[in-house]
Amino acid sequence: MTESIVVEDVVKSFTMRYHRTLKQMAVARVRGHDISDTFQALNGVSFTVQQGESIGLMGLNGSGKSTLLKLINGVMRPDSGRVLTRGRIAGLIATGAGFHPQLTGRDNIFLNAAILGMSEAETKRKFDAIVDFADIGRFLDTPVAAYSSGMYARLGFAVAIHVDSHIFLADEVLAVGDRPSKRKCMERMQEIREDGRTLFYVSHAPGSVRKMCDRVIVLENGRVGFDGDVDEGIRYLKYDADGPADEPNDEDLGADI
Amino acid sequence: MATPLITGTSTPDPEEWPLASPAPRGGILEVFRRRYLLKLVVKRQLAQQYSASFLGFMWSYVQPLIRFLVYYFAVGMVLKAHVDTPYFAIHLLAGMVMVHFFNEAVGGGMRSIWSNRRLVKKMALPRETFPVAAVMIGAFHTVPQIVLLAGACLIIGFSPDLTGLAAGVLGLAVLMVFGSALAILFSAMNVFFRDLQNFIGTLLGFMHFMVPMLYDYRRIADSAIGGTIGEEIYLANPVAQGVLLMQRFFWSGVVQDPSLTLYPDHLLLRGLIMLGVGLVLLALAQLTFRRLESAFPERL
Which of residues 142-171 of A touch B (CB under 8 A)? Predict the structure, then answer.
């Protein structure tokens, strides 16, 4: 077994600025208000993921899931501690990749693929498959600003899934999208998992986490609250308490709210 | 429908892929190592500039041409700058090409991180790609302008010397280095202080008057600041250096009689020193960018 993701005592805090213009800041200072405040998104998070594991990252909104994903993806660096990864990373952060609204779907595919480390030849080879999966039809040469949120999300997922990555990150990929496209995405993620790639899946849906993952990490206010077995993790979050009301809808593969 | 996506690459070879920080290495060298990405960013930027525009690419020439005609009329004919400046049009054009390049590189670079914030926030890529792309776009527009300028000189009668050629190349190098350094530096600072783009924009707007382009260097030498520290400050402007070096190539190449053209002493040496200063500034800009970039995703 080789280590795929190593997170060691990671701390990440954000500065919140309340007052932006000089005037607002001067007024705030006179009145004795705070000009800025810090917010600890992650506070001493540690875990290790082996190659081929598939992790369900769960937690309430604001518990630090997206920040953790951004650190693993390399968009952010930790304030202290270390994040180490092995191999190529692909995936999605917060529904949809970084697309440029004025560019067409076609241009965005090439640009996105290049950022994820694909060469021109590789992108051309996979282009049809990407377009086919994204199912954007005639909109291929339309600026993505005109896309529906479902098309936007599908296109982002389609590019990310076609990268020869070793680690796949999926943040609420299924939040937007209808039943068929959710199912299609889940099938692809199962393939990724069976392929032996490391999967890091953020979701609020216990059903899809159960199907997809063999380990759950629960974040609570920026700390690891639970790390271990899937069912126990879901119980830990009390997500199963909602009981049957949650299940039918969940069976349809992930109501990622 | 389930076709295997990849073949045998799903498990990274620990030899080839050591555990490492997922953050892109960044830095100007990394930008050029990922040339294909840089090329796409440049192409995309150009496509965006010309989208929904009939004249498209031509605007990069129409606007400088109009500006040239206005300056030629107002400064050349009305204020009579061309009376004691032989081939005033070439003098003016050589300067304009350089100022235009610098302004485009610095102005475009300064806004580049902010205007690409959607990508910067979500994707891991060397972020210097964006300011470097702005400099590339400036160069991309400038090369044809230099060709046009050379064409005009050839029609008039052009006999440049080797010193002139060296000066021209040096002038371009100086502005390339300074343009890149300032584009990188300002692009990062602009994320935190959006006032910067207004401030620098205003300064760049004055650049046409702060270089010997609408008037020749002799006017500076004969003016109140001539021979004083004031003149040295004027010449410390890298764009003024770049313009003088470029004029040494094109303008002197058509005027030919050296007694009609005046340059500061040790023009080439000054240019070389300026290039050295620029390289130091570039390194400092890179370091500053490095320090600031980790806060980009939260501030955009």
Answer: 161-162, 164, 166
